[in-house]
Structures
1.
Amino acid sequence: MPDNNDTKPKRTIFGMLCGFILKFLLPLIILMVAIVVGYFRQFEMPEAVFFAIVFPLGKGHLPPPLFGHGKMQGTSTIPVPDDMVPQARPEGETMLELPFGERMPQAGLGMCCRASAYDDELVYRSVLWYLLSGGRLIDGADLYLNHAAIGRGIKEAMRRGIPREEIFVTTKLWTRQYGYNKTKEAVPRFLEELGLEYVDLVLMHSASHVFPQLMTSDCTKRKLSNKECRQETWKALSELREAGLTRNIGVSNFHVKHLEEISELGSEVAPIAVNQYLFNPFSPDFAVDTYNYCKEHGIAITAYGSLGGTLQHFSTQTVDTLEKVAKHHDTSISQIALRWAIQKNVAVIPGTGNPKHMRENLKVYDFELSEEEMKALDELRNDEKAKEFFYMGPLD
C-alpha cells in the first residue's frame, strides 16, 4: 500500500489555514467593508469623496477628507506672494462666442482630477495664481467638492484688481442633482458656496449615471427615462438662466443623440452654449461625430483630456508626430496638443497647480500650427498609437 503519511500534515496545515480565514480574517474583511461603506454612505455624493481620497493617495499625500485641508507637503502649488499684482492677459488671446453674447476664453484651468484639486488651500492658491498670471477661465464642478476654495481665490483676485466681469466661471451639476426640483435647489447652493452672484456657465456633468444601480437621483426615484430626466433638468436650467443665476447653460459628456434630445425641446428653452467632453487628436469616430455636430449647430466645445487624460498623459509624450512638431516649434508636446485644439476652435482646460505650467499653458497663443501640421495631427486618431487610449463610449 502507498504511504500517505506525508500528506497528512499538508491537510492539517490547509485545514488550519481555512479555519483561520473563516474565523478571523473573513469577519475582519466584512467588518472593514461595512465600515468603508458606512463612511461613504453618510455623504450626499459618496463618489466625490471617494475621488477626493483616491487622487491624493495615488500621489502619496494625506487625503483632505480624512486628515484635513492645508496639510499636503511637497506640492508645486506654492503660496502666492502677498505683493503679486495681476499680470497682463495673454497676447493674442482668443475667445469662443456663446449664444447670448458672452465670450469664453479658449484657454482655462481645470480644477479636477489631481491631488491639489482636493485640498482647499491648494485650490485657493491655484485659482489665484492662474488669475494673477493672466488666465480668466476657471472650470469647476460640484463633484470636485472645491466650490468654496475656488470662490476664495476669485474673491482675492478681485481684491487685487481683476474685475469680476473678466472672469469666466464654469461649474457642473452632477447626476444626483438631476430632475427639475433638485436642479432648482442645487444651483443656488453653488452660488452660495462660490460666494458669487452668478456663474457664467452651468453644465450638466454627464448624459446619465455611469453606475445607475449605485447613483440614485430624483429622476430614478420617479422612474423617469434618461431622456426624460435630461429634458426635465434642462428646462430647470433654462429657468435658472432666465432668473440670472447663470449666464449660459450647457452639457458635458453628451454625444449626438443626447444633444438632439435637448434640441427637441425647441425655442422655449435656452440653447446649448457649450458641450465639454474628452477630445484630443486620438479621439474615436463617435467623438469626432460629436465635434462635427456641435460645429454645425453653433455649440462651443470645451475639451478635457487634451493631453491624453489623467491616466494616459505619459503615452502622449511618446508619439512621433507630436515629438517632431514640438521640436519644430521649440516647445513641449503638451503645448502642441493644446494648440491643435485651439485651432480646431475648441477651448482647453488643462489641470495643474504648478504656476510655471500655468504660464506655459497660457503661451498656447504664441505660435500657430501650419495646415500640414494640423492635418498630420488630425490623422493621429488612425494611428496604431490611438488604440492605447481609453475612451468611454456614449452613455444611454
2.
Amino acid sequence: MACSRLSDRSLLRLCWRSARTGMAAQDRRMSTDKRSLTVEAGPEQVQIVKQQEQNEEVQQYTELVRDFLDPAHFYRSVRNIGIDFFCGVPDSLLKNFCAYVTAQTDRRKHVITANEGSAVALAAGYHMATKKYAMVYLQNSGLGNCINPLTSLTPPQVYSLPMLLLVGWRGEPGKRDEPQHVHKGYITPGLLATAGIPFQVLPDYEEGAEQALFDAQQHMKKANSPYALLVRRQTFLSYKLPKREELYQLTREEAVQTIAGVLNDYDIVVATTGMLSRELFEYRAKNKHGHERDFLTVGSMGHASAIALGIAVSKPSRQVWCFDGDGSLLMHLGSLATVGETAPVNFKHVVINNEAHDSVGGQPTAAHHGTFDIPAVARDCGYQEAFTAVTHDEILAGIDRLKRLTGPVLLEIKVNKGSRQDLGRPTRSPQENKQDFMKFLSK
C-alpha cells in the first residue's frame, strides 16, 4: 500500500515501507510467459534475452522470475487512467518508454522541456486548463530542479495540483552506479517523502504496473497532489527511435578531439556532463596528456558554464574553455546572461550541438528546431561574438578565432548524434579529478 496521508508525522516511515513493498512485489511473479524481443543486440538487449531464458528455466520458482514492461503496454495503461499529456527531460532508465512516447504521441501532447522544474510547471498549467492529469518524466537527479515547484506550487497547502511523476531511480541502493548518482539514489525516497509526495516502485510486470497506476490515480483524485513512481534499472523492454539521417560531417567525439588537440598546455577546460566528458577523458588517456587540465562535470547538468565562469573571474590571466552541449546549455540557459553581464575576457564557450539528449535515448532538444539560433541568443545575452562551425576546417578556424578574441565568446559546433558502443568511463574518481585540477589551477 502506498503512503497517502501527507499530514501524517510518520510519512517518511510509510513511504519507505511503500518502497520496500513495491520492491518485494517485483520479486513475486505470477506469470512466466516469455515476451519476444526484436532489437539490435546491444549489451542491454543481450542481458534481457539472457534473463528471459533464465525465466524459462526456473518456471515453477516464481520468486526467481524477472519480467520487463513493454513500453507500448505501459503507455496504454497510462492512457487508461486518463493521462494523455506527457512532458519532462529524458532519462537513461526511462529511455525506452520516453522513445515510445516521442514516437506515438502528438507533438501537442508531448513536450520535452529544457529542465524538470519547467515540466512540473507545464503539467500544472495543463491540469488547470483541462482538469486532466499529466505525466512528468525525469531522472531522480532532476528532482533538484523541480523541488521548488513541487514544494511551492503543487502541494495541497498551496494550489493543490495533481500530476504523475515517473522517476528513473539512478543510484538505487544496492546497485552499482556512477559516483554522482549513488548519493542521489540513496536520498531519493527520503527527498520525495520530505516534499510530501507519496510514491511506490513501479513493478516490472503488467498486472503490478496497472495496480500502481490505479493507486496513483486514486491518490490524485482524492488528494489533488502529485504522486511518484520510481523506476528501477531495466524495467522496460527496448524501444528505439528511428535512426536520424546524418546531417553533418562530424561526430561529437571527433569535434572534441579536434578542439582538445589545438588548445594550449596552460588552458583550463570545464567539460559538461555525459558522453562529452567521457570522450575527452579517453582522448587524453590515448594521447598520454594527463587529466589535470580538465574538470569533468559528471553531474550537475547545465552548470558547466557557471563553474567555468567562477574559474574565469578568478584566473584572469588564463584562457578558460567551457565544453558544453545543447541539452545542458538549454537546461540553465540563464547562465548565458550571467556570463554576458559578468563579461570575463578569458571566457571561451564551445557548444557541441547534436540537437539531441544523446546519452539517454536520443530524444530531440529544442535546439533541433531550425528557428533556434544559439549564437544569436549568446550575442543578445552580451557575448562579444558568437558563430557556428560544421566542418573540421571550420572548427580549427573557429578555435583560432576564439583564442584571439576578447571574451566572452561562443562557438557552436553542429555534429551528428551517436557515440561509440565501447566508449569507456573515467577511471579516476571525482575527488581525484578535483585534486589534480586544483593543482593545475594553482600553477
3.
Amino acid sequence: MGCGNSKNAQVTEPKAAIKPEDNEQIPPTDRGPAGDSARRSKENSILDKSILNKSLLNQSIQKSPLKPIQPIEHHLGSIDKVDEAPRMIQSKPEATDLALSMAKIPIGTAAIEEVVKAIKSLGNLNSLDLNLDSCKIGVGGCEKLKVLSSVKFEALKLNLNSNEIGNEGFQALIDLLTDQENLKTIELCCNKNMIENEAIRGMAQALEGKGGNLEDLALFFAQNYLGDEACKDFINILQNCTSLRYLILDLRQNSVSAEGLSAFKTAFDPSSQMVELTMALAGNVIGGEGLLELFEGIGNLKQLRTLRLELSETKAGHDGARGIGTLLSQLEALEDVELNLWRNFVGYHGALGLAEGLVEMENLQSLELNLGSNFLGKEGSFLIFQALTQIQSLRALNLDLHENNFIDDSATEAIAPLLSGWSGLQSLELYLLGNEVSGRGVALLSTSITKSCPSLQTLSFDLNPKLQASPPANRSKEISLAQTKKSKSSSRCLLYTSPSPRDS
C-alpha cells in the first residue's frame, strides 16, 4: 500500500537497563490550591498549542468553492466602520459569497438588524461567513438573524462564540436552519454560550431530512452545559447526514461522560465516505472505557485520511491509549494524524499499545502527538520513538513528551541509534522540557538527528530551557511546520482559537 513500512516492522521491549519495574507507581497529580493554579497555567499553555488553534475564523480556507465566485471580505475593526457595513455590503449586489467579521466589537441589536437586512438584499448570495465572536449580541441579536431564513444558502458559517445567547438565542439559529434545503456546508461556532441539552435536540429536529446534501459539518460547542443527552442528539444529526466528508465536533469542557460517548459506537456507517474527522473532548471526565466505544465507531470510517483527536485530561489511561493504537492500525488510509493525550496517565503499558498501532501505519505522512505529562518513563518513551522511526512514509513529525515522563540520558542513549529510521523526515518538532535530560543527552540527540535526517528542512528542538540545541549548520532554509504541512484532503484550517479553559 503506497510507500509503506515493511510487514516485519514491530515494537520490541526495551533493553533491561531501561525496562520498567513490575511494581511501577505513577506519581499522584498536583493537589490543593497551589496545584490547581499550576495545573491551570499548564493547561492554558497546552491549549495554546492545541489542535484547535490553527487559525482564526476569518482566515479559514475553503476546500472548493461552490461555484465561480468573487467573494467580498470586510474585516471591520472599529465601531465607526460597523456603521458603514450595510453600505459596503450593498455596494456588491452581484456577490454570491460574503465573508464579514465584526469580532469583539459590542455592536448592539440595532446594528445587527441593519447588517442582516443588507445581507438579505444580495439576491445572488449562496455562501455566508459571518463572524460575531464576542459581540455581546445576546438573545435579541440572534433573533435578528432569523431574517436570513428566506436566503437559500449552500454554505452557512456563523461564529457566535461568547455571546451569552443560551437556549433562547440558539432557537433563532434553529429556525434559520429549519428553512434551509440546499446546505452543503454548515459551521456553527457557539462556544461559551450557556447552551444546554435541549438546544441540540432542537437542532437535530431542524436538520432531520435535510442532511442528504451536507458534505461539510463543523459544530463548536466548547464550554457550554452539554451532557450525555446532547451526545445522543449529535449522533442523530450525524446519522441523518449521509454524505458527510468533513466533520468537526468540539465538545471540550462540557459534562460528557462514558455513557454519552458509548452511543458513538453506532454513529458512523461503514459505507461512509468521510475523509476528515476532528473530535475535541478535552476536559470531560470520560475514562478509557468510554473512549473505546468512540474508537469502535470511528473504526468504521475506512476512507479517513485525516484524524484529529483532542483528548487531553479525559482520564483516558492506558486502556484509552491502547484503544487508540488499535484504532490507528485499523484505519489504513490515514495520512495525517493529530492526537493530544496530555495528562492522561498513559504510562508504560499505554505507550506500548499506542506504539503497536503506530508501527502499523503504512501511509502516515504527518503526525502531531502530544504525550506530555503521562508518566511514560524512559522505557515507554523508547517504545514511542522506536515505533515512529519505523514509519517509512512519515515526512512531518511534532512529538511532545514534555514534563513528567522521566526521560533521562540513559533513554537518549537508547533512542539515538533508532533515529536512522528518519532518513525521509522533512520536518521535526521535538519537545522534552521538564524531563531529566542533561547537556550530554541533548548533544547526543542533536548529533544523531543531524546525521540521520538528511532531508530535514525544519527543526524545532526543545529539551531543556538552559540547554538549547542548535539546528544543523547545513540547513540553509528555515521554514515552519505549518508551511510545509498540507492537508491531503483539503486546505482547510480549523476555525477556533480557544479561550483559557474554565476562565469564568
4.
Amino acid sequence: INAEYMGAEVLCPQDCIQAIYTLLTRRRAHISSEQPKPGTPLYVLKADIPGLDTFGFETDLRMHTAGQAIVLTCFDHWEIAPGDPLDRTIPVSYTHLTLPTILLVQISVVAVSLK
C-alpha cells in the first residue's frame, strides 16, 4: 500500500529514549536521527511514521514517558509502507480516519481474503 508518511520530531530527556524507540519500532517508523538539543538536557529524535500508525501515538508516547516527551508531526511524503498494513497488533482509531481511508482499508482486507 502506498501510504502517507508523517515526519515526527520527539523532544525528550535521555532516560526516555529507549521507550520511544520501542514505540516507534512497534509503529513501523524509520528513525533518522537522534541528537542532543544544545544547552538543554533534552534530545531530539526525528522519525518518519506511516500515517495510519500515527493515530494514538501521542497518547502512547505520553503514557510510556510519564508525560516527559512531546511530539510534533506533519505530512512528509508518500512511500510504500513496510510490514503488514493490516497488522491487528497496532491499535487504530477509526474515528480519526476519513471515509476514503476506511474504504481503502476495507477493500484491502477483501483483496487479501480473496487470495
